[in-house]
Amino acid sequence: MFLSSGEEISLPDLDSFTGAQIGDYQNIETTKAYKVLFADSTEEYILFLTKNTGKESQIAEALQKSLPILGIVVLVVSVIAAFFYSRYMTAPIKKVSRLSKQMADMDFNGLCSTTRTDEIGVLSVSLNTLSQKLGAALSDLQKANQKLQSDIDMERQLERQRVEFFSAASHELKTPITIIKGQLQGMLYQVGRYKDREPYLAQSLEVTDNLEKMVQELLTISRLDTTGYAFNPSHIHLDKLIYDRLTVHEDLFMQRELSVEKDISPEVCISGDLQLLQKVVDNLLGNAAAYSPAGERITVKVWQADEKAHLTIENTGVHIPDKDIPKLFEAFYRVDQSRNRQTGGTGLGLYIVKTILDLHGAAIKIENTTQGVKVSVQF
In which element (H, E) is residue 49 found? Predict the structure, then answer.
């Protein structure tokens, strides 16, 4: 504050004198000057406000000195912020890229986890959905390929079995035909012992009967192995079927001097083709009679347990080598070739039995017992 004489005076709230005169402010921008009087004085004062150019210069100088440091601080903060922001922006993109590489390598197990809701988040969700769908499609395709390969392997195995079967059938048919042809030629030209035709005619007829039986069995096998073959199941009383077939074989049992023991429960019912199951029972009873020594026993049991029907046929006095048991259901397999020829067997009986029972969903097992051989069938 200045006196009317132009001298600066100090006020209590001001820090210090500047040492300036009122005339020093003529060329400096100031506010309007006001004349001021105090209550305890009659002296007149002049009041106006102006900038402190000295302080302003100090602030400008301080700013100029601190500007490089501020620049460095701003630069460092910017770099750090840019680093973390770039990581925030590129992290999901890297995940998407990694998942896409997995998908390119046919690996659809990975997922791109993200909680973002922007375009990158939408892309991640879409890629996850695509990966899951492709994984499911690939899994279905692999299962289809496995099933196809299994079907191909099965078809090859069946084809191999058919080739082996017909090869064996050709061999089996060739033997009786050769025998008949040789006997007929010998009798026709009356060579040596063949001049006496009667016994050789009887032998030729017997061989012809066996040949006819083999052809019939081959036709049966061909019919059963036909693709799409289906039998007409009916309600069958297994106990009555067994009684009926035992009656048919009574003469054979008497000729072989075999005794028959029966343990057959009543009202044992199954579902199946009557004619085919008759052939199964006939073959099993015929085998039991043909391969049992005279004076032995055949035991037939039928019962029902656990909602399943059971049939066992056991013949005593004979055993089968353990190594031969797994091969008994193969076509044309014979445990004893010479003995089988004598009994008139073709080697197809058990093969037909197994084929028919497979069609009925039944299981068959042959095993040695302490007394003989037992065949077990479970429907």
Answer: none
Task: Specify the DSSP class assigned to residue 30.
Answer: B
CA distance 96 to 82: 21
Are residues 345 and 334 in contact, defined by beta-carbon separation less than 8 angstroms?
yes
Where do the DSSP E strands lie in the chain? 2-3, 34-37, 44-47, 234-237, 259-264, 269-272, 297-305, 308-316, 363-368, 372-378
Question: Which tokens is 188 given?
Answer: 């026709």
- How far apart are the C-alpha atoms of 261 and 372, rounded to whole Å? 14
Residue type, 104: A
Among candidate residues 356, 182, 179, 192, the one with its CA nearest the CA of residue 280: 356
Tally of CB atoms within 10 A around 366: 18
The 10 Å CB-count burial string (b at 16+, else e) for 129-143 is eebeeebeeeeeeee
Q: 292: how many CB neighbours lie within 10 A of its CB?
A: 21
| CA–CA gap between residue 158 and residue 156 (Å, rounded) | 5
d(CA 51, CA 47): 14
Helix axes 53-104, 119-188, angle to 10 degrees: 10
- Is 0.85 surpassed by the pTM of this model? no
**Amino acid at residue number 208:** T
CB 378 within 8 A of CB 310: yes
Q: What is the pLDDT along the chain (379 residues), one digit of tens a residue?
A: 556 566 666 655 555 666 677 777 777 778 888 888 877 777 888 888 877 666 666 777 777 778 888 888 888 888 888 888 777 777 777 777 777 777 777 776 767 666 666 677 777 777 777 777 777 887 888 888 888 888 888 888 777 767 666 766 666 667 677 777 777 777 777 777 767 777 777 777 777 777 777 777 777 767 776 666 667 788 989 999 999 889 888 888 888 888 989 898 998 898 988 888 888 888 888 888 888 888 889 999 999 988 899 999 999 888 888 888 888 888 777 666 544 444 556 677 788 888 888 888 889 999 998 888 999 999 9
Asked if residues 321 and 335 have their Cβ atoms less than 8 Å apart, the reply is yes
Contact 168, 221 (CB under 8 A): no
